[in-house]
Amino acid sequence: MSTTNNDIALDTPEKICGYRELMIYSGLKFEIKTNGKMRLTRNISCYALAKREYGLKGNRVKVLAALKEILEAKYGIALT
Question: Could you tell me if residue 48 is inside a domain?
Fold first, then answer.
């Protein structure tokens, strides 16, 4: 990833995939905060995406915790 000024360029498929995974995580946090009333997209929710793509089960909070563990292990970073 390269930055110039405030711009970010995701220039590899791995970086694009990583950004997408972090957006799913952030979107799920937002869905929990708004009690499922607001979503990042009009289509499928981040909760449904996380369950489908990672095979997770449970309510939003449990899925968020499991997704956090998966992403922290995959990228070696601490998510908040």
Answer: yes
